[in-house]
Backbone:
């Protein structure tokens, strides 16, 4: 998706995309991170807290009706207002009967130029849940989570055969020429690696287009961000089986076959051969020398 300055219009665009996906055979659909607005974390602006909403709330209620009408499971990113002063970057999971199956709250919160998420979001406290989807289990992680191997592994251990990574990532315009290709390649490679290491599908919906965080007339100064799109799905062997372009909106579909998960995990038994007795130090921040 390309996201405009009017939140309600973005929601309705998302609804239209879901309906279009169902029309092409989709049974599970995930939208990009924080799709209801332009990416407001380009600056620290207290006015943006007014865009947060509870779960359940207006956005989840709108998509719950769509899920029920079309018998589709939906992963719907939300700027969640938990209470006064406590907000999360979250994804709500809605079943095909419209019920709220649960939510995931982003665990890893970045703080970089034009990605000032620590100003807005409290780190997640729900762990790494998975959700029942069409007889299997599906997980969801959010954007910055995609750079860490531990969340993907934990969701695989909780039964996930597919993990969604709703995303808002792009280039700083002044860095694109020098670092753009390498940054995108690293982003795709690390997520394909999660698919390989865990023998599961990963699906990554990203936004597209240039933005200056224009939300209801609150617009940031500076160069803005160019979101690089390139949404993709990788199979359990790490092969990219569907991929979108960098520069336009697209509806991306792929088939997820649980038998492929079984086959790959049989031939590459990484989960079988894990030395769980030896991994205790992973819970330390750093292994200081004796």
Residues:
């Amino acid at each position: 998706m390309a996201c405009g300055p009017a939140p309600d219009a973005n929601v309705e665009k998302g609804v239209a995309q879901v309906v279009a996906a169902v029309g092409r055979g989709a049974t599970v659909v995930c939208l990009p991170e924080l799709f209801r607005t332009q990416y407001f974390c380009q600056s620290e602006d207290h006015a943006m807290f007014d865009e947060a909403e509870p779960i359940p709330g207006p956005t989840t209620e709108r998509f719950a009706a769509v899920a029920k009408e079309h018998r589709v499971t939906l992963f719907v990113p939300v700027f969640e207002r938990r209470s006064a002063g406590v907000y999360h970057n979250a994804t709500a999971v809605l079943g095909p009967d419209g019920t709220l199956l649960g939510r995931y709250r982003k665990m890893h919160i970045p703080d970089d130029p034009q990605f000032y998420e620590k100003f807005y979001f409290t780190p997640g406290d729900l762990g790494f849940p998975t959700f029942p989807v069409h007889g299997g289990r599906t997980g969801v992680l959010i954007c910055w989570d995609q750079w860490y191997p531990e969340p993907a592994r934990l969701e695989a251990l909780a039964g996930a055969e597919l993990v969604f990574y709703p995303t808002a990532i792009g280039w700083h315009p002044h860095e694109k020429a020098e670092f753009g290709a390498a940054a995108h390649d690293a982003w795709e490679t690390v997520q394909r690696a999660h698919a390989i290491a865990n023998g599961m599908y990963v699906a990554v919906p990203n936004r597209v287009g240039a933005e200056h965080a224009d939300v209801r007339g609150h617009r940031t100064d500076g160069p803005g961000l160019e979101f690089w799109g390139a949404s993709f799905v990788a199979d359990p062997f790490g092969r990219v089986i569907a991929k979108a372009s960098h520069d336009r909106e697209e509806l991306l579909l792929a088939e997820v076959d649980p038998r492929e998960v079984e086959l790959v995990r049989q031939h590459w038994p990484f989960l079988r051969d894990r030395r769980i007795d030896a991994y205790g130090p992973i819970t330390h921040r750093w292994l200081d020398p004796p």
